[in-house]
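Design review, sub-item: ligand-bound model
Attendees: FS, YL, KQ
YL presented the inputs for the iron/sulfur cluster complex:
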Amino acid sequence: MSKPKIAIYKMSSCAGCQLEILNFEPMLLDLLGAVDLSYFVMAKRENEEGPYDIGLVEGAITCGEEISRLKKARQQCRMLVAFGSCACYGGLPSIKNWTSEREIEERVYPQPHLLESTTAYGIDHYVTVDAYLKGCPASREELLEFVKGVLLGIKPYLRPHSVCVECKLHENVCLFTSQGKVCMGPVTTAGCGALCPANNKPCEGCRGPANDANTESLARTFDEYGLHRSDVVRLFRKFAGMTPEFSRGAEVL
Ligand code: SF4
Ligand code: SF4
Ligand code: SF4
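KQ shared the predicted structure:
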């Protein structure tokens, strides 16, 4: 049986999700044994033309050229995966959606009028998406689980519950209730193993909203804890402000 062909596309991103693949050599060897990384510009000089079985798209969509490339990727791939929170929700690039973009461009670029930029969205704003691998960066373990699921023809287990569940399973002391550190864990999708709380840092919400996330209630609780409204807004808009759930959290106060 021929190996499934995988293509990795880069849109507006820091390339950190692709680096996660390269940085995890044991997984890379496993992957290379089971699949054909046909198109991976960051890692290979020579890349094959499509069609592909699986396309991983990293990055938010922030300009017309990316919309065209994304639509072509959709046509080339049997399954298209949003790889990392930028591709899932707009991620960090979506912070620009609430700032005066032209003012910032004028500070950075000598000829800002040459730039063509659109509102930053996750890829499902433009195309149908078959799976979401969340996180900033995306979890390499989840990627491996996903690829194994595709190879075995079974549905991969991508966690719908909140980071708090994983935090409790690891028997971490709750930073929120015991130390008063505001934490996005109650409304954020699990899958990272509660990485930040396990290292004594509150969750910042990088994996986006968990199922049934009550973001309005958490925003009000942050307010009761004395967090300034602008900081509540910042927390909800940092990684997934374009989602309805985090958008409600940002706007409720
Ligand atoms: S999700 Fe995070 S690590 Fe991945 S490309 Fe976006 S900013 Fe970089
Ligand atoms: S530290 Fe954060 S993620 Fe962990 S249980 Fe407390 S609120 Fe939830
Ligand atoms: S604890 Fe929160 S911010 Fe940290 S990796 Fe997990 S989801 Fe992301």
